[in-house]
Amino acid sequence: MSKKILFPTDFSVASKNAFIYALQLADSINAEIVTIHVYEPPQAHFVNAVAYLHEIYDVTELATFENYRDEVPALRTVAEVNNLGHIKMSHVLIAGDTVSQIRKMAENDYFDIVIMGTKGGTSFRESVFGTVATKVMNEVKSLILVIPADCNYQAIKKILFLTQYKSVDTESFKKIVSFSKTVNAHLDCLRIISSHDNEAIDAREDWKQLADSETVNFHLIEGSDTEGLTLEFIKSNAINLVSMHVYHKNFFEKFFETSISKKLALHINIPLLAIHE
Protein backbone atom coordinates (compact mmCIF):
# COMPACT_ATOMS: atom_id res chain seq x y z
CA MET A 1 0.00 0.00 0.00
CA SER A 2 1.39 3.39 -0.98
CA LYS A 3 1.92 5.93 1.76
CA LYS A 4 -0.24 9.04 1.87
CA ILE A 5 -0.14 12.34 3.71
CA LEU A 6 -3.27 14.42 4.25
CA PHE A 7 -2.54 18.14 4.24
CA PRO A 8 -5.42 20.46 5.22
CA THR A 9 -4.73 23.96 3.93
CA ASP A 10 -6.31 27.40 3.97
CA PHE A 11 -3.52 28.72 1.70
CA SER A 12 -2.28 31.06 4.44
CA VAL A 13 1.41 31.86 4.85
CA ALA A 14 1.54 29.55 7.87
CA SER A 15 -0.05 26.75 5.89
CA LYS A 16 2.41 27.09 3.02
CA ASN A 17 5.24 27.09 5.54
CA ALA A 18 3.94 23.81 7.00
CA PHE A 19 3.70 22.41 3.48
CA ILE A 20 7.49 22.20 3.41
CA TYR A 21 7.32 19.68 6.27
CA ALA A 22 4.73 17.67 4.32
CA LEU A 23 6.93 17.71 1.22
CA GLN A 24 10.08 16.69 3.07
CA LEU A 25 8.32 13.86 4.88
CA ALA A 26 6.70 12.69 1.65
CA ASP A 27 10.12 12.60 0.04
CA SER A 28 11.68 10.63 2.89
CA ILE A 29 8.94 7.97 3.06
CA ASN A 30 8.05 7.96 -0.66
CA ALA A 31 4.51 9.18 -0.06
CA GLU A 32 2.00 11.20 -2.04
CA ILE A 33 0.30 14.29 -0.63
CA VAL A 34 -3.43 14.91 -0.76
CA THR A 35 -4.32 18.50 0.08
CA ILE A 36 -7.81 19.38 1.28
CA HIS A 37 -9.31 22.86 1.34
CA VAL A 38 -12.64 23.15 3.13
CA TYR A 39 -14.89 26.17 2.76
CA GLU A 40 -18.01 26.86 4.75
CA PRO A 41 -21.29 27.29 2.83
CA PRO A 42 -22.83 30.77 3.12
CA GLN A 43 -25.32 31.52 5.86
CA ALA A 44 -28.16 33.79 4.77
CA HIS A 45 -29.58 36.02 7.51
CA PHE A 46 -32.06 38.23 5.70
CA VAL A 47 -35.79 38.01 4.98
CA ASN A 48 -36.81 35.73 2.11
CA ALA A 49 -33.26 34.39 1.93
CA VAL A 50 -34.50 31.02 0.70
CA ALA A 51 -35.53 32.57 -2.60
CA TYR A 52 -31.97 33.74 -3.20
CA LEU A 53 -30.07 30.88 -1.62
CA HIS A 54 -29.27 29.17 -4.91
CA GLU A 55 -27.76 32.35 -6.32
CA ILE A 56 -25.77 32.90 -3.11
CA TYR A 57 -24.35 29.40 -3.31
CA ASP A 58 -23.47 29.81 -6.98
CA VAL A 59 -21.59 33.07 -6.39
CA THR A 60 -19.81 31.79 -3.28
CA GLU A 61 -18.79 28.50 -4.86
CA LEU A 62 -17.56 30.21 -8.01
CA ALA A 63 -15.45 32.64 -5.97
CA THR A 64 -14.11 29.80 -3.82
CA PHE A 65 -13.27 27.72 -6.87
CA GLU A 66 -11.49 30.60 -8.58
CA ASN A 67 -9.43 31.30 -5.47
CA TYR A 68 -8.68 27.58 -5.12
CA ARG A 69 -7.69 27.36 -8.78
CA ASP A 70 -5.25 30.24 -8.28
CA GLU A 71 -3.77 28.95 -5.03
CA VAL A 72 -3.12 25.30 -5.93
CA PRO A 73 -0.28 26.14 -8.35
CA ALA A 74 1.39 28.04 -5.50
CA LEU A 75 1.79 24.75 -3.66
CA ARG A 76 3.49 23.26 -6.68
CA THR A 77 5.79 26.29 -6.72
CA VAL A 78 6.70 25.69 -3.06
CA ALA A 79 7.62 22.12 -4.01
CA GLU A 80 9.73 23.16 -6.96
CA VAL A 81 11.56 25.88 -5.04
CA ASN A 82 12.53 23.24 -2.47
CA ASN A 83 13.60 20.77 -5.19
CA LEU A 84 10.64 18.54 -4.37
CA GLY A 85 8.62 18.98 -7.53
CA HIS A 86 8.66 15.22 -8.07
CA ILE A 87 6.31 14.62 -5.13
CA LYS A 88 2.96 13.28 -6.31
CA MET A 89 0.04 15.51 -5.30
CA SER A 90 -3.71 15.59 -5.62
CA HIS A 91 -6.13 18.21 -4.36
CA VAL A 92 -9.62 18.17 -2.84
CA LEU A 93 -12.00 21.14 -2.56
CA ILE A 94 -15.09 20.53 -0.44
CA ALA A 95 -17.80 22.50 1.37
CA GLY A 96 -18.70 21.91 5.01
CA ASP A 97 -17.30 22.14 8.50
CA THR A 98 -13.49 22.07 8.36
CA VAL A 99 -12.81 19.67 11.23
CA SER A 100 -15.66 17.33 10.28
CA GLN A 101 -14.50 17.08 6.68
CA ILE A 102 -10.89 16.47 7.69
CA ARG A 103 -12.02 13.77 10.11
CA LYS A 104 -14.29 12.16 7.51
CA MET A 105 -11.56 12.08 4.90
CA ALA A 106 -8.97 10.75 7.33
CA GLU A 107 -11.33 7.99 8.45
CA ASN A 108 -12.66 6.99 5.03
CA ASP A 109 -9.30 6.77 3.27
CA TYR A 110 -6.07 5.56 4.81
CA PHE A 111 -3.50 8.24 5.53
CA ASP A 112 -0.23 7.66 7.35
CA ILE A 113 -0.27 11.14 8.87
CA VAL A 114 -2.10 14.47 8.82
CA ILE A 115 0.14 17.55 8.63
CA MET A 116 -1.14 21.08 9.06
CA GLY A 117 0.03 24.57 9.91
CA THR A 118 -1.51 27.19 12.15
CA LYS A 119 -2.09 30.86 11.51
CA GLY A 120 -2.98 32.16 14.98
CA GLY A 121 -6.01 33.82 16.52
CA THR A 122 -7.20 36.24 19.16
CA SER A 123 -6.33 34.42 22.38
CA PHE A 124 -2.91 33.18 23.50
CA ARG A 125 -3.83 29.58 22.83
CA GLU A 126 -5.25 30.42 19.40
CA SER A 127 -2.26 32.57 18.48
CA VAL A 128 0.09 29.67 19.20
CA PHE A 129 -1.72 26.67 17.79
CA GLY A 130 -5.01 27.83 16.24
CA THR A 131 -8.48 26.61 17.08
CA VAL A 132 -8.81 24.37 14.02
CA ALA A 133 -5.52 22.63 14.75
CA THR A 134 -6.58 22.13 18.37
CA LYS A 135 -9.86 20.53 17.32
CA VAL A 136 -8.19 18.35 14.69
CA MET A 137 -5.68 17.05 17.24
CA ASN A 138 -8.51 16.31 19.64
CA GLU A 139 -10.96 14.73 17.22
CA VAL A 140 -9.12 13.14 14.28
CA LYS A 141 -7.83 9.69 15.21
CA SER A 142 -4.64 9.80 13.19
CA LEU A 143 -1.08 10.92 13.67
CA ILE A 144 -1.40 14.72 13.59
CA LEU A 145 1.69 16.82 13.00
CA VAL A 146 1.09 20.51 13.74
CA ILE A 147 3.57 23.16 12.61
CA PRO A 148 3.54 26.48 14.51
CA ALA A 149 3.22 29.57 12.35
CA ASP A 150 6.77 30.85 12.81
CA CYS A 151 8.47 27.47 12.68
CA ASN A 152 11.30 27.30 10.15
CA TYR A 153 11.83 23.87 8.63
CA GLN A 154 14.34 21.60 10.34
CA ALA A 155 14.94 17.99 9.46
CA ILE A 156 13.40 15.81 12.17
CA LYS A 157 16.43 14.25 13.85
CA LYS A 158 15.65 14.44 17.58
CA ILE A 159 12.17 13.56 18.90
CA LEU A 160 10.95 13.93 22.48
CA PHE A 161 8.06 11.79 23.73
CA LEU A 162 6.55 13.15 26.95
CA THR A 163 5.22 10.25 29.00
CA GLN A 164 4.48 8.88 32.46
CA TYR A 165 5.75 5.40 31.49
CA LYS A 166 2.27 4.03 32.14
CA SER A 167 0.49 1.23 30.29
CA VAL A 168 -1.97 3.70 28.77
CA ASP A 169 0.97 5.22 26.85
CA THR A 170 2.42 2.01 25.42
CA GLU A 171 0.50 1.94 22.13
CA SER A 172 1.36 5.58 21.48
CA PHE A 173 4.95 4.77 22.37
CA LYS A 174 5.05 2.00 19.77
CA LYS A 175 3.70 4.45 17.19
CA ILE A 176 6.32 7.09 17.95
CA VAL A 177 9.06 4.44 17.83
CA SER A 178 7.82 3.42 14.38
CA PHE A 179 7.65 7.06 13.29
CA SER A 180 11.16 7.78 14.54
CA LYS A 181 12.52 4.81 12.61
CA THR A 182 10.66 5.94 9.49
CA VAL A 183 12.26 9.40 9.56
CA ASN A 184 15.57 8.03 10.90
CA ALA A 185 15.43 10.14 14.05
CA HIS A 186 16.68 9.59 17.58
CA LEU A 187 13.94 9.25 20.21
CA ASP A 188 14.10 10.43 23.81
CA CYS A 189 11.35 9.60 26.31
CA LEU A 190 10.99 11.85 29.30
CA ARG A 191 9.12 11.71 32.58
CA ILE A 192 9.46 14.37 35.25
CA ILE A 193 8.42 13.41 38.77
CA SER A 194 7.99 15.48 41.88
CA SER A 195 10.53 14.96 44.64
CA HIS A 196 7.53 14.40 46.93
CA ASP A 197 6.07 11.61 44.80
CA ASN A 198 7.13 8.64 46.89
CA GLU A 199 4.84 6.26 45.03
CA ALA A 200 6.26 6.96 41.57
CA ILE A 201 7.09 3.73 39.77
CA ASP A 202 10.10 3.63 37.45
CA ALA A 203 8.98 1.46 34.52
CA ARG A 204 11.79 2.36 32.18
CA GLU A 205 13.23 -1.15 32.09
CA ASP A 206 9.89 -2.52 30.91
CA TRP A 207 9.73 0.13 28.21
CA LYS A 208 13.21 -0.73 26.99
CA GLN A 209 11.87 -4.18 26.19
CA LEU A 210 9.08 -2.57 24.14
CA ALA A 211 11.53 -0.42 22.21
CA ASP A 212 14.13 -3.05 21.28
CA SER A 213 16.15 -0.25 19.73
CA GLU A 214 19.42 1.57 20.40
CA THR A 215 17.93 4.81 19.07
CA VAL A 216 15.64 5.25 22.10
CA ASN A 217 16.77 6.71 25.41
CA PHE A 218 14.62 6.78 28.56
CA HIS A 219 14.89 9.62 31.06
CA LEU A 220 13.48 10.22 34.52
CA ILE A 221 14.12 13.63 36.04
CA GLU A 222 13.16 14.60 39.56
CA GLY A 223 12.04 18.16 40.25
CA SER A 224 9.10 20.44 40.90
CA ASP A 225 9.53 22.75 37.90
CA THR A 226 8.02 20.48 35.24
CA GLU A 227 7.84 23.24 32.64
CA GLY A 228 11.37 24.50 33.20
CA LEU A 229 12.92 21.04 33.24
CA THR A 230 11.09 20.06 30.05
CA LEU A 231 12.21 23.23 28.33
CA GLU A 232 15.79 22.76 29.49
CA PHE A 233 15.78 19.18 28.18
CA ILE A 234 14.47 20.29 24.78
CA LYS A 235 17.11 22.99 24.44
CA SER A 236 20.07 20.98 25.73
CA ASN A 237 19.22 17.98 23.55
CA ALA A 238 18.43 19.95 20.38
CA ILE A 239 14.93 18.44 20.18
CA ASN A 240 13.09 19.43 17.00
CA LEU A 241 9.78 17.62 17.49
CA VAL A 242 7.71 17.05 20.64
CA SER A 243 5.20 14.21 20.78
CA MET A 244 2.54 13.14 23.25
CA HIS A 245 -0.41 10.83 23.66
CA VAL A 246 -3.94 12.26 23.33
CA TYR A 247 -5.71 10.88 26.41
CA HIS A 248 -9.23 12.14 25.71
CA LYS A 249 -11.21 14.24 23.27
CA ASN A 250 -10.56 17.56 25.00
CA PHE A 251 -6.96 16.79 25.94
CA PHE A 252 -5.42 19.61 23.92
CA GLU A 253 -8.13 22.08 24.88
CA LYS A 254 -6.95 21.65 28.47
CA PHE A 255 -3.26 21.23 27.64
CA PHE A 256 -3.09 24.63 25.94
CA GLU A 257 -4.32 26.26 29.15
CA THR A 258 -1.44 24.87 31.20
CA SER A 259 1.78 26.68 32.01
CA ILE A 260 3.90 24.08 30.23
CA SER A 261 2.27 24.76 26.86
CA LYS A 262 2.73 28.50 27.33
CA LYS A 263 6.39 28.18 28.28
CA LEU A 264 7.09 25.83 25.40
CA ALA A 265 5.35 28.16 22.98
CA LEU A 266 7.19 31.23 24.27
CA HIS A 267 10.67 29.73 24.26
CA ILE A 268 10.74 27.14 21.48
CA ASN A 269 9.13 26.89 18.09
CA ILE A 270 9.05 23.28 16.98
CA PRO A 271 6.36 20.92 15.66
CA LEU A 272 4.01 18.95 17.88
CA LEU A 273 2.95 15.39 17.05
CA ALA A 274 -0.33 14.22 18.57
CA ILE A 275 -0.85 10.45 18.85
CA HIS A 276 -4.25 8.93 19.53
CA GLU A 277 -4.85 5.57 21.17
Summarize the structure.
InterPro entries: Rossmann-like_a/b/a_fold, Universal_stress_UspA, UspA. Helices cover 44% and strands 22% of the residues. The chain is α/β, with parallel strands linked by helices.
Termini separation: 22 Å
Mean pLDDT rating = 79
Order of helices and strands: EHEHEHEHHEEHEHEHEHHE
The fraction of residues assigned to DSSP E strands is 15-25%
Form type: elongated
- In the CATH scheme, the class of the largest domain would be Alpha Beta
Number of helical elements = 10
**Total DSSP E strands:** 10
Helical proportion, percent range: 40-55%
Key terms:
277 residues, elongated, Rossmann fold, 10 helices, 10-stranded mixed β-sheet, alpha/beta
3D architecture notes:
The protein is elongated, with a radius of gyration of 20 Å. Strands 3-2-1-4-5-10-9-6-7-8 form a 10-stranded mixed beta sheet, with helices on both faces. It contains 10 helices and 10 strands. The protein has 277 residues and is α/β, with parallel strands linked by helices. The protein has 2 domains: 3-147, HUPs (Rossmann fold, 3-Layer(aba) Sandwich), CATH 3.40.50.620; 158-268, 3-Layer(aba) Sandwich (Rossmann fold), CATH 3.40.50. Helix 7 (204-211) links the parallel strand 7 and strand 8 (216-222). The two termini are 22 Å apart. It comes from Flavobacterium micromati. Belongs to the universal stress protein A family.
